From TrEMBL:
Its EC number is 5.3.1.5. GO terms for molecular function: metal ion binding; xylose isomerase activity. This is Xylose isomerase. Belongs to the xylose isomerase family. Residues 1-26 are annotated as: Disordered.
Amino acid sequence: MSSFAPPSKKAKRSHSNGAAAKSDGDFFPGADPFGFPTISRHWDDGSNSMENAKRRLRAAFEFFEKLGVKYYTFHDRDIAPEGDDLKETNANLDQLTDLALELQQKTGVKLLWATCNLFSNPRYMNGAATNPDAHAFAHAAAQVKKGLEIAKKLGAENFVFWGGREGYHTLLNTDVRRELDHMGSFFQMVVDYKKKIEFEGQLLIEPKPKEPTKHQYDYDAQTVIAFLKTYGLENDFKLNIEPNHTTLAGHSYEHDVVVASKFGFLGSIDSNTGSPDLGWDTDQFPMDIKNCTLVMKAIIEQGGLALGGLNFDCKIRRESTDLEDMFIAHIGAMDSFARGLKNAAKLIEDGTLDALVRERYSSFDKGIGAKIEKGSASLEELEDYILEHGEPKMISGKQEKYEAIVNFFV
């Protein structure tokens, strides 16, 4: 998994800065629900030992250096194996994060974000923050406490939450209101502890509509924004958008990026793509230049991603078994977004597309439209307006023209 930090006139970091992650994205063994692993690496003996974890971490940083990226990301259970109990697990994390800190200092590679895996262990089969068992909820809280501590230790710029098991398979055994209330309380505890330990990173929530849960509570950007506002968390969290999840929710690739940005909630991006025709999460590397262009346009228009970046939370295909395929995939994805950045900058500089959008909404710039936008119009006033001016004219949306303009720059 790699990250690429994007840019703009106001961005805090150059588009040449990147990050790569110590995770299954880089060390995917090629297994799937229908077949055994197809990929083996000389640095990974397949064991869950501390020695193997250290080899994998060293190999990851060598990979980051060879790619030339400046940031990386990880799940807590990717970087260190679980022990027999929480105490042993935390001790394992201490050892591996000591090594990670040493490697960060040696290479200059920084931690873009850390996160906790609150979905793989069977204890979380019914959820973590939304688990109907308070004991499981407490374990998730303890795991996140440690996660925030190691994030601070390693200087993480963000901390991500993805609720793979935060949802339901059937409403028959689910109290939706209690589960969401519990999740709201969970995140408030996170905010409180973040302040207590003075962790300065940005908190992020990553939407996804389904998989592994049939229905996830963090369905898409609008759903998460509504959740944050409902529980008074809107000033403490932003969103980490994965467009592959966006298409699973039935939206276009860039939809959640644009929605989150327009409402001030876009914090970072996991830039995976997928195959919308399949209906499940394929975590492919982004190679579609048009998609990359539209995402970069949104990033430039909001002035960059501040503490965030473009993270390639992707897997090479099961059939891509050569070592060089790891490099080709990451470099190709970064090049796609670099080209998308150039395209987006030209599209914005040209101004034709944005001018057409402004013209489309120009009736709200003055007169009755301006009163509507300001919230000073009434139903009675609008009725009088229609009685005086009659039926509105049909105005073409000119979708094909907009698409042709974008194609000119792609």
